Amino acid sequence: MEICFRSGVTVELVKHAASDADVIWAARVSTKGESSLADVEADPERSRGLINFLMRDRHGTPFEHSTLTFYVRAPIFVFREFMRHRTFSYNEESGRYRELEPEFYVPAPERKLVQVGKPGRYDFVEGTPEQHALVTEATKEAYRQAYGAYRRMLDAGIAREVARTVLPVGLYSSMYATCNARALMNFLSLRTRREDAAFPSFPQREIEMVAERMEREWAAVMPLTHAAFEANRRVAP
Ligand SMILES: Cc1cc2nc3c(=O)[nH]c(=O)nc-3n(C[C@H](O)[C@H](O)[C@H](O)COP(=O)(O)OP(=O)(O)OC[C@H]3O[C@@H](n4cnc5c(N)ncnc54)[C@H](O)[C@@H]3O)c2cc1C
Asked: How far away, in angstroms, is 85 Cα from ligand 1 center?
């Protein structure tokens, strides 16, 4: 199989049962009991106010009555960070049961390469053209060598689970990741960098690329919740 080099990530919202109405319905049961279901579409302005109140005062549980399933294809080093988020459910492709496709991550020209500042608050600045050329050449060379070794072992009849030990974390993998809106907001607050956030985070750019796409998909299905998250400076409830 031909080796393929990529700089991007794939994110698709493949399945969801998630809307602002789910939040309203869950919150109003505390005062209205079963009849809260009828209230959902009744008064959009009140709904906006209620969602904002829940977000501001960090009443998080009404945001849990939703599910969003994302398909993600990204390098393995992104998955290692992603899977630290324990409130998601995951299923990932297997390197034991299938031959892994030779698709490898090479940073794009706009990826900032040089790290300055102190741990926990790094800034990244552009690399020189020479530094970019070095990264591109060194990563591709390492990938070719690693994949060549993998291929040689498979061709000699070695088990996939043994042969894969030589593959690097720049290899792409794919997974389904399912969460509710509350878990997603916690993820987004940590994996996007916003200067105006109440608690600015400093994530690795590649997981931020995934987070930004997830946020776009989510904002389209829960616009009031997303607006309240932004208005409350991206503090997860
Ligand atoms: C910029 C950045 C740098 C990082 N650097 C490192 C690093 O150097 N080394 C490292 O090991 N990790 C690192 N991490 C990972 C980090 O420590 C967390 O594991 C990760 O961000 C997941 O956060 P979480 O626990 O809030 O998420 P989730 O696991 O999704 O949990 C969501 C929330 O549920 C609650 N919760 C979940 N499980 C428990 C539990 N067992 N007990 C109590 N409450 C729970 C908490 O309120 C938690 O915030 C880094 C993360 C970021 C964003």
From this structure: 6
Active site residues per annotation: 191
Instruction: Tell me whether residue 55 is annotated as binding.
Output: no
**DSSP string over 174-237:** EEEEEE-HHHHHHHHHHHS--TTSSS-----HHHHHHHHHHHHHHHHH-HHHHHHHHHTTT---
- pLDDT at site 20: 94
| The pLDDT of residue 123 | 86
Rounded-to-integer distance, Cα 186 and Cα 200, Å? 13
Q: How far is CA 148 from CA 88, 133, 154, 163, in A?
A: 35, 22, 10, 11
Is residue 207 in contact with ligand 1, taking CB distance under 6 Å? no
Assessment of whether the complete model's pTM goes beyond 0.85: yes
Domains, the chain, with CATH or none:
4-107+169-231 (3.30.1360.170)
Taking the CA of residue 190 as reference, the ligand 1 atom at the shortest distance is 53
pLDDT at site 32: 66
Q: What's the rounded Cα separation, in Å, for the pair 162 and 115?
A: 35
Mean per-residue pLDDT over the chain, rounded: 94
Report, as ranges of residue numbers, the positions in the chain whose pLDDT lies below 50: none
Cβ(84) – ligand 1 distance below 6 Å:
yes
Question: Which pLDDT does position 62 carry in this prediction?
Answer: 96
